[in-house]
Amino acid sequence: MDVSFVGGPSRQRGVGVVAPFDFALDRELWRWVPDDVSLHLTRTPFVPVEVSLDLARLVSEHRTLSDAVQALSAVGPEVVAYACTSGSFVGGTLGERAMVAAMAQAGAMPAVTTSGALLMALEELGVCRVAVVTPYTKSVTDSLETYLAEGGITVSGRSYLGLTREIWRVGYRSVVDMAREATAGRAAGPPQALFISCTNLPTFDVIPQLEAEFRMPVLSANQVTVWAALRRIGKEAVGPYQSLLDPVARRAVAAMATAPPPLPPVPRPGETRPGAPETAAAMAGTPVPSAAEEGVRGEAPADAMFPEFPEFPETLPGEPGGGPAAG
């Protein structure tokens, strides 16, 4: 069969990625990448340390980053991204900028980090107050909050798991539970967005549902990393129904944020809304129309307009397994 007319594979634009040695979510990164872009990943050397501030410092040493970027240079990427949240916020905003400079110098190309990308994404969305979800210990989570404060961002609430290993095994249900806890915190005012930290924490499928529930943009570590790297080469990340990436989703979330809260469900026979007095019909024993019956008469029941949040699997089919996890 003559295939000479095909002309070879289409040209791919390259994005280099330096990830911690234990990074396990390669396929999630790819889900944000358009078809004409390839990711070229390399990892930092193994160190026998669990997730901690010490590990974050070890996987972000300038010599380590320079060696990784030089290795990636062999395949000619147009930009390089350091895909580790804790490794890029542990030194504060000055430390993050120094990392970017070291990588750019080693590879003679633009460079971004996850934590730097986060601040860029928050600026893009006009956000200065966030709720934060992390899988980290308290000390690592505190370091993230310090970094955000240096970047002019207030943390309104937070939730963390306290894990020191195998972070990629965390299921979506745990992410949802933490998100609800973090967004409930209002000490510094209501959050304008939610950030889910750690590049080893799965988030892709849960972002649209969380945005619908909380009526605010939801950012994740891998999402902002790919978004920022692609912007450096004039490309756009793909991610349906994600406010950072999808203008339609951004407008929808903005509209929901200013809309009045949903009405409570219509009481069923013999029931009353919490805190409301019983109706005369209910007290007299007269049947009260159900929500479904109201819908039949042309008025959609409240729970149909605002369905309950879906159940998420604890893990996705085929999730990788292994040792500790930084990110």
TrEMBL record:
Record region (Disordered): 258-327
Domain of life according to the entry: Bacteria
InterPro entries reported for this sequence: Iso_Racemase_Enz_sf, MaiA/AMDase
Biased composition (Pro residues): 259-268
Pfam family of the protein (one): Amdase
Biased composition regions of type Low complexity, renumbered to the chain: 299-318
Annotated protein name in UniProt: Decarboxylase
Native source organism of the sequence: Streptomyces calidiresistens
